[in-house]
Write a structure and sequence with these properties.
It is a single chain. This protein is α+β, with helices and mostly antiparallel strands. The chain has two domains: about 150 residues, 2,3-Dihydroxybiphenyl 1,2-Dioxygenase, domain 1, CATH 3.10.180.10; about 200 residues, 2,3-Dihydroxybiphenyl 1,2-Dioxygenase, domain 1 (Roll), CATH 3.10.180.10. It contains ten helices and 17 strands. The strands form two sheets. Strands 6-7-8-5-1-4-3-2-9 form a nine-stranded mixed sheet. The chain has an eight-stranded mixed sheet with strand order 11-12-13-10-14-17-16-15, with helices on both faces. It is globular and about 60 Å long.
């Protein structure tokens, strides 16, 4: 979807789109039941709602998973045609909808359309026993990523035709508390266009920018811009590949995903050591970090609360900025194609994305690319 340039104008603050937080992220997958089981058993989510044939939905099956303030929806097709089946055929398992919680879905939708967004769903009211929700949706800049606007008023269910799951299986939470940021990979030369879309249509502001000089090895590199709302609750880093000798991780993603899309979701925790221990015990594999990374770490990071030896054993990365430090680690791809993965992050005051870890992360991903024969 291209921005309609004749409709992109500067809006005053009173006409701005006020986004509160991410309401949920919906994945289109080949088998929603298996995906839900995996995230419950491996990441500690709880399955809270279901939609399918039994609830009056004829073309798809969905499970809603929840942990603290994180909500994932996994949807798979029940027929060989239709939008869900077509998405999975082209992209494999991936993120289709980043739904945004707002106070006024009608105004957000109308403003976004006036600014050039393509409508996907007109504002629709769904009433429940004790309340109602209003849902509308627009297309992202391009590809198969959309954004819903969700307005909730004492609505007890997740959404229409979603029924609460009776006798919810016992799930052991792992300590994940919120979505920190969602990273989008786009084609070479498209980063600025995506950033302009989010700025002009959704009032997100650019908070950071990285060039190929900041994120590169002798083999490959990338460029990135970070867009976020005024509260920092919604943050979208947008990456594009930079030309170099070999295929970058961004280009590998684009080749296997067949177009732009969500590369990874960063989930925040208040105790990354406990979370990583539990996730490793649950069978989650993380990118490796060489011993040399930790040799000069105390001098680079300064005083921290955690034990360096523990972080070394768990392969957790650290970075510091002017406001504090953070800890982070990245899983290997969680789907069949080398596309989507999860980041675990803990913030101790730091507001960045782990800029000092970009080199180590890039090299770790390149080692995995080489193992796959895709570097």
């Amino acid at each position: 979807m291209q921005i309609r340039e004749n409709k992109l104008v500067n809006f005053q603050e009173e006409n701005s789109i006020k986004l509160k937080k991410i309401d949920y992220v919906e994945f289109y997958v080949g088998n929603a039941q298996q995906a839900a089981y995996f995230y419950c058993k491996s990441f500690g989510f709880k399955a809270i709602a279901y939609a399918g044939l039994e609830t009056g939905v004829r073309d798809r099956k969905s499970f809603v998973l929840e942990q603290s303030d994180i909500r994932f929806v996994f949807t798979s097709p029940l027929t060989p045609d239709g939008p869900v089946a077509e998405y999975v055929r082209l992209h494999g398992d991936g993120v289709y909808n980043i739904a945004l919680l707002v106070d006024d879905a009608r105004t957000c939708f109308q403003t976004a359309i006036a600014r050039g967004a393509k409508p996907i769903q007109e504002p629709t009211v769904f009433k429940g026993e004790n309340g109602y929700i209003i849902k509308a949706a627009i297309a992202g800049y391009s590809g198969d990523l959309i954004h819903s606007f969700i307005e909730r008023h004492n609505y007890s269910e997740f959404a229409p035709q979603y029924h609460p799951i009776e006798n919810i299986p016992i799930a052991i939470p792992t300590g994940l508390v919120d979505i920190d940021h969602i990273v989008i990979n786009v084609e070479l030369g498209k980063m600025d266009l995506w950033a302009e879309f989010y700025h002009q249509v959704l009032d997100l502001q650019e908070s950071q920018q990285f060039t190929s000089d900041d994120i590169s090895t002798k083999y490959s590199s990338l460029m990135s811009k970070v867009l976020q709302n005024n509260t920092g609750q919604i943050r979208f880093p947008i990456n594009e590949p930079a030309p170099k000798y070999h295929k970058s991780q961004i280009q590998e993603y684009l080749d296997f995903h067949h177009g732009p899309g969500v590369q990874h979701i960063a989930l925040r925790t208040n105790d990354i050591v406990q979370v990583v221990r539990q996730l490793r015990s649950n069978g989650i594999e993380f990118l490796d970090t060489p011993e040399t990374y930790y040799q000069n770490l105390p001098n680079r990071i300064g005083e921290i609360d955690e034990d360096i030896n523990t972080l070394r054993d768990l392969k957790i990365l650290l970075d510091r900025d002017e406001t504090g430090y953070l800890l982070q680690i990245f899983t290997k791809p969680l789907v069949a194609r080398p596309t989507f993965f999860i980041e675990i992050i803990q913030r101790k005051g730091a507001e960045g994305l782990g800029n000092g870890n970009f080199q180590a992360l890039f090299e770790a991903i390149e080692r995995e690319q080489a193992n796959r024969g895709n570097l």
